[in-house]
Fold this sequence. Notes:
Shape: globular
Strand order of the largest sheet: 1-2-3
Bound molecules: pantoate
Number of helices: 7
Amino acid sequence: FVPTMGYLHEGHLALVDEARRHADVVVMSVFVNPLQFAPTEDLARYPRDPEGDAAKAAARGVDLFFLPDAAEVYPREPRVRVVPGALAARWEGEVRPGHFAGVLTVVTKLFHLVRPDVAVFGQKDAQQAALVRALVTDLDFPLRLVVAPTVREADGLALSSRNVYLSPDERAR
Ligand code: PAF
């Protein structure tokens, strides 16, 4: 299982290749999770391309492409969140309060919906990967977590859907 927020690039597709090494059936989800965005963040303008994503996923051999809308994942206002604990207190968690609670909550829901044997996450989001490992271990999810290496541009920049936001100067920095 490869959970993503879409606007797929080679980094996501490398996760599909990794999933294929561990499983006969590969499921990919594309869901821009409102719960992990603060009101001041980029939820509305987060890049989206569902049709392009479906085509890229199919071309890479994804067997099941899951593209739920927000009402399907959150049919009612969620009352419960997964508390990420001390691992979320610094780095990205420090500047994005609530972000990792939103991530772990949707990852929990996606794990329950998909029920994967293996879940593949990118090393690029290292703190997220560590928190998902803690989630799987501490809450006894019956799955194996695989963390796959970061895919980079020729100049070393990690591939990311949000790279489209960068000006040439920001990109160079
Ligand atoms: O890394 C991401 O794209 C997201 O945080 C994830 C894991 C799909 C949860 O929304």
